[in-house]
Amino acid sequence: MAAATVLIADDHAVSTQLLAHCLASAGFRVLSAQDGREALSLMEAESPSLVVLDVMMPVMDGLEVMRRAQTDERPLDSNARHGERPLSASVPESGPRQCSPLSRHF
User: Can you say whether the dihedral through the CA atoms of 63, 41, 51, 24 is positive or negative?
Assistant: First the structure.
């Protein structure tokens, strides 16, 4: 079985690298985008299982990416259940500095 793909869209390289390392260590295939337009292109080309979006990015912000993805006729992942809703969260700048075990049950 192929590893689930996670797309990280964030213009802050350190945040992207830290999260990518944690996810890859947990067995996920990780893609990254530095702005919203690149994220949309990767979403269309790669059909990730999960997309992690920064809200404030150049070119197109994360909220606009969500709006466009929600109105797109194509599903992000053919294995995703219908009717799933996007989740959002924020982590303070002083957030955790170490990777903790990640659940594989998304």
Answer: negative
Distance CA 35, CA 98 (A): 25
pTM for the complete prediction?
0.69
What CATH homologous superfamily does 5-71 map to? Response regulator (3.40.50.2300)
Phi, psi of 7 (to 5 degrees): -105, 125
Round to whole Å and give the CA distance between 36 and 19: 18
Q: What is the pLDDT along the chain (106 residues), one digit of tens a residue?
A: 778 999 999 999 999 999 999 999 999 999 999 999 999 999 989 989 889 988 888 888 888 888 888 776 554 554 444 444 444 444 445 444 444 444 444 3
Helix (H) or strand (E) segment spanning residue 16: helix 13-25
Q: Rounded to an integer, what distance in angstroms lies between the CA atom of residue 29 and that of residue 67?
A: 25
Could you tell me which of 29, 19, 16, 8 has the C-alpha nearest to residue 98? 19
Asked if residue 47 lies in contact with residue 78, where contact means CB atoms within 8 angstroms, the answer is yes
